[in-house]
Amino acid sequence: MNFLANGFDLAQQWLFETVVQPLMFTFGLANLLEDGYDATGWLLVGLLQLLVMLAIIAPLQRWRPAEPVTDRAAIRVDVLYTLIHRLGLFRLALFFAFTPMWDALWSGLRMHGISTFHLDEVWPGVSDVAWVSLLIYLVVFDALEYWIHRGQHHFEWWWKLHSLHHSQRQMTMWSDNRNHLLDDVIHDVIVVTVAQLIGVAPGQFVAIVAITQLSENFHHANVRVWFGRVGERLWVSPRFHRLHHAIGIGHESHPPEPQGGGADGSPAGSPPSRSRKPVLGGHNFGVLLPWWDMLFRTANFELRYDPTGVRDQVEPGPSGRVRDYGRGFWSQQWRGLLRLCGRA
User: Fold this and answer.
1) CA 257, 234, 171, 176 torsion-angle sign
2) Which of 102, 119, 230, 242 gets the most CB atoms within 10 Å of its CB?
3) 3-state helix, strand, coil in the chain (%, to 5)
4) Count of domains in the chain?
5) pLDDT at residue 322, as a whole number
6) 46 within a domain of the structure (yes/no)
7) Dihedral angle of Cα 66, 211, 208, 48, to the nearest 10 degrees
8) Across the strands, what pairs with 252?
9) Residue 321: φ, ψ to 5°
10) For residue 335, is it within any domain?
11) Residue 135, Cα to own-chain centre: how many angstroms?
């Protein structure tokens, strides 16, 4: 752990002094050098993630794809989403928009004698072992991500934003960051607030985000891979998460079926037909660990690789038309706002 941390620190310092610091002086941002150094860490993490994606996950997609690539234009838009997030552009916007608010909030709490605590200090000696502390926070944040994800599928207003993520019919390793920006803001505000409340060290927080994002890139990948009966229950696999994106399975729940079959006469466990109206819900919400899905009975371990997307993209709604989620970045963002306002 120390070796990796020292190597990362050296690379961060080199990148900051060589590239970021000169640019900040050029644009008159010398008063933000400390924040610029922190931002350089996130930039370095993003560059390393892109390197792993291109060197390891991309060859896996070519080796054993779950489906043929037929719409490269849709994938290119997902690449843009990934670059915006992994190169720090979205985080930079969050910094200028929300950092003053967060600083004022935590400063006000401390002035009133309300302080946060460090979760890993609840157990004596744990905080002294870096990797154990990291694992504790990793599990805690994964549980948080599970419930955020359940919320995105449970609340209709939130689903109107989150459905953009599910509208990708050509899911690949680039699809993880395909989100409405407002959805990302809500998600990050929740995560950062919890991180402050439970006292995650900045370095550990960066590591948790990096591990989570890279794993998400892999289980969004267009690969026909699963981890076996035991492995599937230890870590989220591409098969497990692909089922979450499957049309009519991953983002819908349905009334209980009669014993021995569906309400429409279909076999038990088969995808529902139109006669049984779906409601928001679904399966396989876990981000890293399938444990939460198993615990709260939302897991589906069927070994299958279904088409991805949202039902209203392929089946006409009450208007007699299928829903348009947009083809380009800006059209997808705009249509998400229209859905939120009930106009699309």
Assistant:
1) positive
2) 242
3) 60, 0, 35
4) 1
5) 94
6) no
7) -130
8) 280
9) -125, 155
10) yes
11) 19
Which pLDDT band holds residue 127 (cuts at 50, 70, 90)? low
Give the whole-angstrom CA distance, residue 24 versus residue 274: 57
Q: Is residue 133 part of a domain?
A: no
DSSP character string of 240-263: HHHHHTBTTTTTEE-PPPPTTS-T
| Neighbouring residues of 292: CB distance < 8 A, sequence distance ≥ 6 | 142, 143, 146, 285, 286, 298
How many other C-beta atoms are found inside a 10 Å radius of the C-beta of residue 81?
A: 23
Q: Using the structure block, give the residue that is written with the tokens 């989100």.
A: 179
Q: Can you point out the beta strands (E) in the chain?
A: 252-253, 279-280
Contact 43, 206 (CB under 8 A): no
Question: Is the torsion defined by CA of 329, 334, 338, 341 positive or negative?
Answer: positive
Q: Give me 112's structure tokens.
A: 């009133």
Q: Are 328 and 152 in contact (CB under 8 A)?
A: no
pLDDT, residue 14, reads: 96
Residue 70 lies in a domain: no
Residues 282, 244 contacting (CB under 8 angstroms): yes
Question: How is residue 280 annotated by DSSP?
Answer: E
Residue span of the structural domain in which 296 resides: 141-255+276-340
Instruction: Provide the residue type at 76 as one letter.
Output: R
pTM of the model: 0.90
> Which position has the token pair 């996130």?
42
